[in-house]
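Schema walk-through. Below, the input block comes first and the output block second. Nothing else is stored per chain. Lengths vary across the set, and this one has 181 residues.
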Amino acid sequence: MTDEGPDTVETLAARDADREAALADLFQRHHLDLVRLATLLGAESDAEDVVGDAFCELHRGWKRLRSPDAALPYLRAVIVNLVRMRVRHLQVVRKHVEWVREDDVASAESQALVRDDQRALVAALRGLAARQREALVLRYWLGLKEAEIAEAMGISAGAVKAHTARGMAKLGKVLEAQGDG
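--- output ---
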């Protein structure tokens, strides 16, 4: 047995304990906000599952983080990607299923997260292109900076500006039309 043996085991155990404590703290402080993010991005009734999957990805990839401060941006990026994959999957399924319901009934859980006065905005957000919706939610709901949004979406800061500008223009037109109707 080498001198490193017991120290290595103790060191690994301490790192595991630190990781678990950091993950638990992150979950406690940000879970609800991340569920709201997933809901606003289009996960609807799957929002809890998307966030749970994102935490699993974080747990698996913890050692690859630059620092513990990178965990929340990493979770946001994973959630954006998981919601994108879910939306793509649903589009494919809907193309192959003829009896898809026209009305999109959200779960009671996601409805409870969105107050009555926000429903028109959420409905208008759902009408935007996915990238525009993602950029607007990350910018105005989470208050992220362009660089953080670019990292979460996996695009350039210039593309973030373009998606945000186009999204705001379309959102303004939709909300104005709703107000006139």
